[in-house]
Amino acid sequence: MELNADFTQRAVIHGDEIPWKASPMQGVDRRMLDRIGDEVARATSIVRYAPGSQFSAHTHGGGEEFIVLEGVFQDEHGDYPAGTYVRNPPTTSHTPGAAAGCTIFVKLWQFDPADRLQFRKELGAELATASPGVAIQTLHQDDRETVRYITLGAGTQMQEDPTGGAEILVLQGDMTEGGDTLRSGSWLRLPEGQALNLTAGETGARFWIKTGHLPFATAPVA
Questions:
Q1: Of 78, 95, 141, 175, which sees the most CB atoms within 10 A?
Q2: Are 129 and 110 in contact, with CB atoms under 8 Å apart?
């Protein structure tokens, strides 16, 4: 399966406008944003766990990165409330579920195969002012990518020329970019070579952003 698999093209999806599709595990549904592959896939998705649902124990051959958007995600390693950012690199394993239900934004098979850095962070816990109206928390940085959590004050503008492209998920508020209005749940992928020009709306905006990673986008290797 291929969905938004041409990484030289701009892609915008408003999460609340696409239907939920059932996963192979009962009670777990997903909204697919981009995908290369079938059930083993380089995938970016919004995943919803019904209360009491759980995946079988599994190992992440290509790594897993996620943000808890609503509720509490759980596995044998602990509870992850809304606002938690997690990186589970290749070779890590767990049995994920949600006793009370949850929704996460998750990226699979997008790690450097040699990455072994596993951690969790709270979004907003280490914000630093970068310029008037702009606060940034760097969540992860390596030779392939930079992952940040950014807040923009009302009407604040932010411009970047991201090497290696950019990908954004709006977590709260709204903002415009390239003629598109992005709201909570909107996902933008900007190809390499295109400038990023954001303007926050009247209530500001909070978003997750990854840059530098698009040249490494390939199908998973079994």
A1: 175
A2: no
Residue 93: its pLDDT value, please? 94
Residues 32, 85: one domain? yes
> What does the pLDDT look like over 37-95, one tens digit per residue?
888 889 999 999 999 998 888 898 999 999 999 999 999 989 999 999 999 999 999 99
CA 27/CA 49 separation, integer angstroms: 6
How would DSSP label each residue in 76-120? TTEEEETTEEEEE-TT-EE--EESS-EEEEEEES-S-TT----EE
Instruction: Give the per-residue pLDDT at 55.
Output: 86
128 and 211 part of one domain: yes
At 222 the pLDDT is 62
How far is the C-alpha of 208 from the C-alpha of 206, rounded, in Å? 7
Give the C-alpha separation, 186 to 17, whole Å. 9
13, containing H or E segment: strand 11-14
| Number of domains, the chain | 2
Assess whether 143 and 45 both reside in one domain. Answer: no
* Domain end call among 121, 147, 169: 121
Q: How many other C-beta atoms lie within 10 A of the C-beta of residue 173?
A: 20
The SS3 call for residue 130 is strand
Compute CA distances 102 → 42, 47, 84, 126, 161, whole Å: 22, 8, 12, 24, 34
Structural domain span for residue 143:
123-216
φ, ψ for residue 15 (rounded to 5)? -55, -35
